[in-house]
Amino acid sequence: MEIIEISKKYFEDWLNIGLELWSKYIDKKEFLRKEFEEIMSSDNQTAFLYFYDNKLIGFINVSLRFEYVQWAKSSPVWYIEWIFVKEEYRKKWISKALVEKARDWMIFKKCKEIASDTDFDNITSQAFHKKLGFKESWRIVHFIKNI
Ligand SMILES: CC(C)(COP(=O)(O)OP(=O)(O)OC[C@H]1O[C@@H](n2cnc3c(N)ncnc32)[C@H](O)[C@@H]1OP(=O)(O)O)[C@@H](O)C(=O)NCCC(=O)NCCS
User: What is the pLDDT of residues 30-40, one digit of tens each?
Assistant: First the structure.
């Protein structure tokens, strides 16, 4: 196995695995392409890819958040934006390894706290975060209406 920081060489692979996760929310590949290009060109965002037998099976997108993060005592805060592992490879500590790898980058960026979020109904992700030592800090409900 190998964990590699994102570079142009792996961009299309990363985009395709990203679509597996995002398809629930966004069905436009070009929208995601722009998002990922922005990550690539930013000093405050990156991604790490997990390869097993030369096959990309998981990734983590992380950022430095300079805006207020609930309950954080420091700034910037290291934020897990997205984390994903293909279903057949789950519960093999792959995400844990991705978080640990990203942690080295964040230490280099002098971060002191890690934050993350997940949907209300994503019980798997909540269990995963708690196992990694995260404490729940806030719950929020979003609203929308036509004007
Ligand atoms: C959430 C997700 C990233 C976890 O990935 P994973 O590689 O299976 O997690 P790991 O194997 O590294 O698990 C780390 C710990 O969390 C626990 N865990 C993981 N999934 C769990 C589950 N469904 N229920 C209970 N505990 C779970 C593991 O048992 C492990 O604990 P342990 O060290 O005591 O054994 C993965 O399920 C996934 O890709 N889900 C879909 C995408 C998603 O929801 N992402 C999060 C939104 S940001």
Answer: 889 999 999 99
Domain assignment present for 147: no
> What single letter denotes the amino acid at residue 143?
F
User: Which of 56, 63, 82, 91 to probe ligand 1 with, by most ligand atoms within 8 A of CB?
Assistant: 91
Q: Is 54 left (phi over 0), alpha (psi -120 to 50) or beta?
A: left
The Å distance, Cα 130 to ligand 1 centre, comes to 10
Instruction: Give the chain's domain count.
Output: 1
Give the C-alpha separation, 1 to 132, whole Å: 21
Q: What is the pTM of this model?
A: 0.95
- pLDDT-derived band at 27 (thresholds 50, 70, 90) equals low
- Cβ contact 44:34 at 8 Å: no
